[in-house]
Amino acid sequence: MLLFVTRRVGTMALTMIVVSILLFILLELTPGNVATKVLGPYSSEEQRRLWLEAHGYFDPIHIRYFRWLGDFIIGNFGESTRFKVPVGDVLWPRLWNTAILGFAVMVVVVPLSLTLGVLAGMKEGSKLDRSISVGSIVFTSIPEFASAVLLSAIFVFYLGLLPGTSGMASGFDLAQLVLPVMVLVLYDFGYVARMTRASMAEVMLTNYIRTAVLKGLPYRSVILKHALRNALIAPFTVIMLQINWLLSGVIVVEFFFAYKGFGALLLEASLNQDIFLIEACAMVAVFVAVGTQFAADVGYTYLNPRIRFS
């Protein structure tokens, strides 16, 4: 097990290094572009030269890279040209806000989608299976901006039950979190449910499940102790991938409801060419991506112990 974890950590570190090199080449390789983005297009050539000299951009490229990477490791991301404050002062609160939103979504999506998927997979081809499958496809086919408009029209303008924005200007408000969570749940649960249904239906046709049923074991015990554990391997992969999507793929929802999250921050940084903020957001997103994959690999060993020895 220790060797398994060590290999996964090494792969995670190597991935981060490769991505950091690519990010450095794309955004930091040309000093003139960096100075222009920081000082603005109307800055003089002399101003840019002095700024580059003061920040060590005339040093050899390998020295620049390792200094840049070292700053990232210790959390020194530079200063945001958009907000005029250190990047960390903006990044961490926004990341925390998205974590709250993502946690609320996963709390609803995981039990809902797994339950519906298992029920559909247990009775493949039944009316329940077809109803769940059609509903999952319909909701997943509706893009977030469309469901956001529809739900806002119903719950904000027609019923007047919920606020139309989620800016949290007066502090945390659970009511302002309801609509963004509803939009994301409606879009996401169908995909996980369909994956669970397919996996469960496949497991139910295996010989060991048929043998357990023929031996007279209680059907509930067969499902919970034998079928469910193996059926959860594929959905577990999808669920872990949803964490990456909830981090930076919810730009539409956060922007629509004015939610101050990581996705909206990334959009704002891109629109304003805030280079240091873009770099920090990219590195954090990659770190979360490789971190969730590491967690998925470790989770596999508990769902299927044979994997740890392969």
Automatic annotation (TrEMBL):
Domain ABC transmembrane type-1: 95-296
Broad class of the protein's primary localization: membrane
Organism domain of life: Bacteria
Gene3D superfamilies: MetI-like
Listed InterPro entries: BPD_transp_1_N (IPR045621), MetI-like (IPR000515), MetI-like_sf (IPR035906)
Lipid bilayer topology: Multi-pass membrane protein
Transmembrane segments: 9-27, 99-122, 134-162, 174-193, 232-257, 277-303
Name of the protein: ABC transporter permease
